[in-house]
């Protein structure tokens, strides 16, 4: 049973396991990234991150404590000289584990463990990503508002004039001559009425002369 087993022994005795983690930590500090199995990478992360945290404060005591764990003067000097200034503003999470698939032969799960602040490609991508502001949305709204009236104007221009049906055209043509006929008939009727009025006046004058 696995009761109380917090660490993965990695199939090794204590001394062998400790020596292996020390060597892997020195390689990680010097080369900034190494390839290993996923299980070893997870154990290495728990081993090396407290060491990196201690390197943030450069003192004789911290150097001695780091040397006790690494057993390499070159690794200690590299850690305090190059790694510590870059991770000074980072509060934990100094390493990143990226899985690489399985290893040919025994199908062991492989991974790459690296120091986060030394991956230049990832840092460039994070810098190039800009936060979208709300002003862009407003510009889009104004663009759509200006585009809508323009589209309406073009649609009005492009719309062809509605052609009148043939029945309406025929009715309008037939109505036009009738109006002309009535206009021509009215003067003739007035001319006929005028002679009648003159005859009536003449008759009245004749009757008055007879009475006299």
Largest sheet: 3 strands, antiparallel
- Tell me the name of the CATH homologous superfamily of the largest domain: Ribosomal protein L17
In CATH, the architecture of the largest domain is Alpha-Beta Complex
Compute the CA-based radius of gyration. Answer: 52 Å
Question: What's the mean pLDDT score?
Answer: 79
Shape: rod-shaped
Terminus-to-terminus distance: 160 Å
Q: Which bin fits the share of residues in helices?
A: 55-70%
The helix count comes to 7
Number of strands: 3
The secondary-structure element order is HEHHHEEHHH
Spatially, the strands of the biggest sheet line up as 1-3-2
Give the total of domains: 2
What structural class do helix, strand and pairing data support? mainly alpha
CATH class of the largest domain: Alpha Beta
The CATH topology label of the largest domain is 50s Ribosomal Protein L17, Chain: A
Q: How much of the residues is beta strand, in percent?
A: 5-15%
Low-confidence sequence ranges: none
